[in-house]
Specification:
This protein is about 20% helix and about 30% strand. Strand 3 and strand 4 (about 55-60) form a beta hairpin. The chain has a 5-stranded antiparallel sheet with strand order 2-1-3-4-5. With about 90 residues, the chain is α+β, with helices and mostly antiparallel strands. It holds the Pfam family S4.
């Protein structure tokens, strides 16, 4: 599944266009590497997303083409949340 679509379907980011913009700005990493909106996301991948001054790292648990709002959080597990800039990039 495309990165921008996963971010939208999982509701980590509310709109696909915003997900596309965020990844084009270099604020999303898959398994430690810069990710583009079209990058492939697989189960087990670790995504790091910079939201302003916060960096959230999640593990992809499952991929579905669509999901209900209540079930969206089951698509990923939050591994850590930290202020951006504290980890060694």
């Amino acid at each position: 599944m495309r990165l921008d679509k996963f971010l939208k379907v999982s509701r980590l980011i509310k709109r696909r266009t915003v997900a596309k913009d965020v990844s084009e700005q270099g604020r999303v990493w898959i398994n430690g590497r810069d990710a583009k909106p079209s990058s492939a996301v697989k189960e087990g991948d670790e995504l790091a997303i910079q939201f302003g001054q916060k960096k959230v790292t999640v593990r992809v648990e499952r991929l579905t083409e669509s999901t209900r709002k209540e079930d969206a959080a089951t698509m990923y597990t939050v591994l850590k949340e930290e202020p951006f800039g504290t980890s060694q990039e």
